[in-house]
Structure formats: C-alpha cells, structure tokens
Prior knowledge:
By secondary structure, the protein is mainly alpha-helical. The chain contains 17 helices and three strands.
Amino acid sequence: MKFKYQARTKTGELQVGYIESPDKPNALQTLANHQLYVLSMEAVLQKKSNLFAFFNRVKLKDLMVFTRQLATLIESELPLGRSMKIMHEQTKSPALKEAVFQVFQDIESGLALSQALERQNSIFSDFYINMIRSAEVTGGLEHALTFLASYLEKEVQWKSKIINAMMYPMILVVLFFIVAGIMVVVVFPKIQPLFEESGAELPLVSKIVFGAGEFVQTKWWLVLFILFIIWYILYDYFKSPEGRQVGGQILLKLPIFGPMYQKMYIARFAQSFSILLQGGIPVAQAIEISGDTILNFVYRTLFKQMSQGVKEGEQFSQLLLRYPQYFDPMVGQMTAIGETTGRMDDMMVKIADFYEREVNTVVGTLSELLQPILLVVMGVFVGLLFASILLPIFNLAQSFAL
Length: 402
C-alpha cells in the first residue's frame, strides 16, 4: 500500500512525502527508523474514475462562495486555522469540504496556506495558489482573497449569462428533434404503405425521410452503437494535445461565439496578469500562470511561448503584436505603453475593463442574434420534413384527378 505522511525531522523541519509499505504500522516504523516524528499518515486511495470525478467535481460557484466567506473571516482578524475550521463546517460541497479539511490539517501541521492549497491542486488552480503565495509575502491575504472571490464571481456571471442566452435556443432544438424523431420513426412508417400501394413515384426527399425512419425503426441498436463509436472517437481525439489544439481553433472560428470567447480570454488574462504583477511576480512567470487560467488550448500554448520569449529577452508587447489573429493591435500597443512607463499593471487593468464591457455587450445580445438564425435553420428543416409527406400526397391527388 501507498501512504502519504507528514513528519518533522530532528531539527524540526516539516517533511511531506509518500511511502510504500504492507500496512500502516510498518510504514510508521520505517519512518521512525529514519528519525522522523510522524504528524499524520493516510492511505492513498486509488484514482477515481473520470465519471465519478465528473459528478464529484467542485462547482465554480461553490469555490467562489468559499473564497468570499474565507476573505470575510480573515478580514475579521480570525486566525487562519480557526477560519479554515469554520469553513470546513459550513461548506456543503462534499469534494470541497474534504479538500478544506485537508487544508486545515496541513495548516495545523505548520504548512503555509499556499502550500496546503498546492496539495489540493485538483480544486485550486495555479493562479489561485500563486495569488495566495504572493499575498503571504506582501501581507495582504485578505485583499488577495477578496480579489479571487470577485474574479470567480465574474466567471460565474459570464458562465450564467451564456447558459441563459443558450437555454431558449437549446430547448427549441431539443423539441424539434423529439417531434421529428416521433414523426420519422412512428408516423411516417404507418402512412408509407399508402403511397407504395398507389404506385406513385416518391420524391427524393420523401425517399430519404421514409428510408431513414425505416432504418432507425429496424436497426435502432446499430444507430446507437454507431453514435457511441463516433462520440468515443471524438472524445478521445479532443482529449489529446492535437485534438485540444484543433478544438480551440474551431471554437475561435465560430461565428458570434469565436469573437466573444476571444474577448473573454483577453479580459481574463489581463485581469489576472495585473494582479500577479502587483503581487511582485516576475513578468515571465506571471504570463505563464495567467495563461493557465484560460481553458482554450490555443491561448495557453501562445502564452507559454510568450513566457519563454520574455525569458529570452523579448518584449511582451512585441510578442502580442506578432499574433494579430488572436490579440487586437490595441492590446499590444497598450502593453507597449505600460512597458515604457513602467505601469504595465495599470495598463492591464484598463485592458481588462475594456474587454469585460465588450464581453458583457456581446453576451447581452447573444440570444437576440441566435434566435432569428435558429428559427431560419429550423424552418428549413421543418419545411423539408413536411415536404416529404405533403409532396407524395399532392402527387397522389394529381394521379387520382387524372
């Protein structure tokens, strides 16, 4: 078995690590033989399945509420350990509650908050951890937590606005497919023999729809199997580095959504980058950390390359201007002004404010843009669906008239 332990050496230094042993007593004895005083030890559980992890994940809103409440407790000058204990008692999310308890134990064992959070990096991002680490150096932990809470709150608001804007169109799409499926699989096969007995030639659209309905009705298991195979192949591909790169490119090229996400990525980066600079993080490191807050693989790759470029002596503004398809020229120009004046953090705040307003405007009009487009597309499909049954009826009526 594998155990994770915390121990102190003879000189009082804290040591954290893993040890393989048949059982816990043997592991304790082995560490004691190495002159280590064990503070805590726990068995390392097997890695959870992706499906279980998905349902047990920490929601962004839960993390935002936790951060806001913790900031309030710290501002009230409660000791950090006591604050974490209170947060463990108040937290409702099972996964976050367990993580907070582990953080509380680590703090009680002598670890700094950033070190304790780093051990829970599946929940707390690198950006979150580095913000806390810089605040511990400058002594402004409550300010860092307040900023993180506001940052997460904006993320929640953007996500909620996008979901709300997409809700009505998605309901229409789902209802259309349900109705179309019932007609193709249940209704059309019952009236198809009437047209076949009449001997009238079916239009091409009717042949396609009737054939699809008959195939789904008799080979539904094959349809489900094919859909599963397609889903698995696409899921596996888009999990790979190449697939994530392609997926990121596709998202950025989508009409309406592409420009919106581009502005959102720039706003998110500029906001986090400015705070890290204010916390004394070096520019190259701040670029890489802020880039990791962006989910799009294309932008994350670009920021890693830029971080390396800055380490090699290049100016950040020139690197931004090198990719006009991903960054508006204004971003590079304002960054250049910040580099010249030595106030890059202020420039990044202005960039973040500008693009936040742009994103809010786009998100606010998203549903207004999508609904007419969706209605036109659905109208075409509905027209084809009813044409497949009305055209044979019209042809049949004409044959009887003759």
